[in-house]
Amino acid sequence: MDELIDILKEIHPDVDYATATNLVDGKILDSFDIISLVSEIADKFDVVVSAEHMIPENFNSAQAIWDLIQKLEDEE
Amino acid sequence: MLFTSYKFIGFVILLVALYYVLPKKAKWPLLLLGSYVFYYFAGWKFLFYIAAVTVITYVAGLLISRNKVRADARFAELKALEKSGSASPEEVGKEARKRYKEAQKKKRRLIMTIGIVLALGILAVVKYTNFTIHNINGILSVFGSTKRLGFLEIALPMGISFYTFQAVSYVIDVYRDRHEAQKNFFKYALFVSFFPQLVQGPISRYGDLSKELFTPHKFSGRVLERGLQRVIWGYFKKVVIADRILTAVNALIAAPATYKGVYVFLVMMFYALELYADFTGGIDITIGIAEMLGIPVKENFERPFFSKNIAEYWRRWHITMGTWFTDYIFYPISVSGPMLKLSKWSRKHLGEKVGKRLPVYLASFIVWFTTGIWHGASWNFIVWGLGNFVVIMISQELEPLYRKFHKKVNTDGSTAYKTFQVGRTVLLMSALRLFDCYRDVPLTFKMFGTMFTTWNWKTLGSGTLMHLGLVRSDYVILGLGTILLIVVSMIGRSGSVRDKMEKKMPLVARWGIFTLLVLIILVFGAYGQGYDAAQFIYNQF
């Protein structure tokens, strides 16, 4: 999780990822940020986030992103 | 049957009345029948196109869904066999199950691809054949050939870009397991053809629209009232503002040799107002009619002219088209295997900064190229789309500079700075829209240039404005109408205007206002002698 927070902090340093639950719905992360994030996740966690996973619910909070990574790791 | 024709108004009144009179079971079939009757009036031949797109995407969705159900059942079966130990691990073990799952997914992807290619193929043939021929002829001419290909006589079916995109999104969403396929062909046909949104969208998703579309709604005076209010507001924008200023826009762009310099700036401003009033007015009518039937349709605008930059503007203008391109083109391209490989390669060879941006910029380029050509088969629209891409990329690249500036200069909450940002967005978007106005790309650039080379501001005061097909009273109506649009938009920033009216005003006062609005539409609508209501701009897309 810490590794994920580091990636997120690199994209938007001023967001409190421990409490934020509307990263996409609140327009904090835009589509550019999400692609950078997916690319970083692919590098660091060796999982492929495909287009079908690109829904706001999967990216609205650090926890949701973490859950998605876990799910993809399980599927591998 | 234009939205602004008496025939259409009569059609809607009859349909809404029948909808609430008929028994529950007959309600959605009535909507399907009504939608096809509406489409028939656009041209009976066009019915074949919409029927073909419906059949193709219905079959694709159904096959994908059936495969998924079968594959899930078999997967569970393999798991059970492994648990019971009645089959070898090579046949039913984790690896075997994974292989099976991937093979089935591949099958589903193939079905989806065939469905999309066929549906988009119809759109491509009717919309882009003559554009392709035009370009081939251009290339032949460059190489000195006198041979020319003949153009085909193909009429563009009304709303084909909208219903095709809606049908394609359905197939992809079934593939992505967002919802199940609709088994009832006629219900699915209604989703594709729902008449209020056939003309110019919004591009609805099956998951958002289907439930309420097929639910039989009971009559409610409140629902009817709110829908009707929205329809009236839409007609006000279209008939009083858009159709009035259209005359001046047409006069200005028809004579570019005469109307240079400051008149190009006028085209920018007038066309911005025309397009906004026309498109949002049409969407108000669409959403209002659907509301009268108790069916909520996704909003397509969120006060776009109050945006602080172009990226934000595109999140607030034609929202359903923007999210369509993001979900079905931008994301799939950006996170595709080849793109991630390219990203890795470029990080290694071109540096971290370029590597991170490359996939996003490449995917954005494709999205904006597609957005351009979706709007129309001409280089004007392609250049317009790529112009948006360039501006968004520049502003993205300048982000660090903006951050530095904001650290030094505190603009938080500054009204002056916000006004500057909004003004900048309006000017940029209006300048880009010039491609929508002038005959070709070189002329558009030339006309844009005249704003800086031809200083004819003073001629504005010499009565030229009265030669654009509008008289003084028209300008007064347009001025007051624009002020009303801005005021309503500002009130709407903190919530629905109709909600506020409902809470604060008695019924008589509310209806007093809307009756006045109807009178204004009747008296001040841009009818005139030999009135021929203008087609909605987005209808031709």
CATH architecture of chain A: Orthogonal Bundle
Name the pair of protein chains with the most residues at their interface, and give those residue counts.
A-B, 17 and 22 residues
Overall form of chain A = globular
Element-by-element helix/strand order of chain B = HHHHHHHHHHHHHHHHHHHHHH
Query: Could you say how many structural domains of chain B there are in total?
Result: 3
| Order of secondary-structure elements of chain A | HHHH
* Structure summary, number of beta strands of chain B: 0
Number of helices of chain B: 22
Number of helices of chain A: 4
Average pLDDT confidence of chain B is 90
Which stretches of chain A of 5+ consecutive residues score pLDDT under 50? none
The CATH superfamily of chain A is: ACP-like
Please report the distance between the alpha carbons of the first and last residues of chain A: 19 Å
Oligomeric grouping of the chains: heterodimer
Briefly, what CATH class of chain A?
Mainly Alpha
Largest sheet of chain B: none
Q: What is the straight-line distance between the termini of chain B? A: 17 Å
Spans of chain B of at least 5 consecutive residues whose pLDDT stays below 50 are: none
Task: Return Rg of chain B in Å.
Answer: 26 Å
Helical fraction of chain A equals: 55-70%
